Amino acid sequence: MPYLCSDAEWTDYLNEAEDEACIRSEIIEDSAIEIWFAAGDETVSIPERAFSIRSAYVSGKSLSLYTLSDLDYLLQDGWEADTGEVVSCARNGNKLRLYPIPDAEGTLRITAFCTPESKMVGGDDEPTIGPTRLHIGLVDWALRCAYSKPDNDMYDMSMADRHAARFEAFFGPRPNAVEVRRRSIRRKRHARGNFF
Asked: What number is the average pLDDT over the span 92-112?
């Protein structure tokens, strides 16, 4: 004593590790996210923790998932003002653009890969991810964070890199934003050009 990292720092590091593990390995799948929308709502907000949407339904009907550029390509000019029964949606940040704009209220139900809904706070809290054999892998990310801390007594980038590599071997590499978006949109890619 005094310890090089406080209990609060270790808790933060382990929470960050659990988020990283979920993003890398798609461990938590939530199929019960429900979002109410009113008639005329162009967009709905989705929980920030839902990083990859797998499916979306309104009144039990599956919606097609697109990007905004796909909607521009597939639909006629002025599609942004179309109204009717929702048949598809496009993700834009933490919002889903509904198409067409709903002419009646409803509930959107999505299935998504998520980070944990609540964070660990106390010493008795356990990670949300299961099975418990995955919990030991979180320690490497916490150690990576601790060794990366700009502190004369703790800082050691070679140790931080070693633990980051062990974490990656356990949970996989972190996908970039394009890969996450590609995985979260189940659709055919559209080609442009002339075919003879």
From this structure: 94
